[in-house]
Here is the input.
Amino acid sequence: MKIAIITPGGVDRSGVERIIPCLLWFIERLVKSGDEVHVFALRQQTEREQWPLLGATVHNAGGSNPLVRGSRTLLDLHHEHRRAPFDVIHALWAVPQGVWAAIAGKVLRVPVLLHLPGGDVVDLPEIKYGARSTCLGRMALRFAISGANRIVVPSHYMVRLARELGITAECIPFGVALDHWPIVAPRRRPDSAPARLLHVGNLSPVKDQEALLIAMHYLRERGTEFQLDIIGEDTLGGVIQRRTVELSLESRIGFHGFVSQSALRGYVRAADLLIVSSMHEAGPIVALEAAACGVPTVGTNVGLLADWAPDAACAVDVVNGEALGAAIADILSNENLRLELASEAQQRAVAENADVTTRKIRELYLEIIER
Here is the structure.
């Protein structure tokens, strides 16, 4: 098959920085299956450029104007389609990638698979998050939906959110690559050591690190010894770090910014619990990475955590730091339960790994091509 993938970015030529790891795993496996893959990135970098990556070809639109980027993407798609026709177009996120995919699909008469791995079907007005938070976003979502032959989301939680909007979607998790994240059996915590906690996510309103800090404050007040590592770029200009000082948590929390996948593996393997405080998640893939390493997740009732709770994860209501703290404390006080969660999560992560993801999506490609 000849496949066009439209993405905002995540396909830097370095293969290390500014990437979406699960997207690279997917591309790598498509190429190994014998497919010809072209990735059309709207805003990977400002220059209009082309480069090879994992056997695929990346076409970067470049430019600062969204309409210019979209127009360039359509032109590049058309040019490549004339060279040899595409069999399928796969758009990641509805707005704006799904919009451009819908246009290209209609003009080129190529079927479209729309993938919704983020905030496409949500509206969180308090933080102005989600494609549905604006009138233009809602219109764009509907247009993208109308141009898609099939729609895929990474969790049953997202299937339910889509269904509430009258959107029929299928659940295919973006699985973890077990060659990049080898299985590590769950291990017992040392009795006397402080709990090693890990949070992975850019510092941003939707990740709700304020609730995370409230949870940590709760743990400290109840006398739980812990050390929290926070991995992710800061998009809030130091707000969370200053709040950490206000709560006198600076000695217990380390901010590490962006780290590579290889460095992240070290943090995950050393952790006792992964903590997710998000107001919305479609995945998150980090819960699968942690599960592969034998580390269970405690977090909010979103995405895969909503799917997995209570057998493979512990989930509480969003925007409730004290409830999150109490759940963490409960798991840390019951080592057998922590290990049971870790074992069940690992089984699910293995069952939903990147090879399975690629196989299922290729099967969808073939179905919509035949129809």
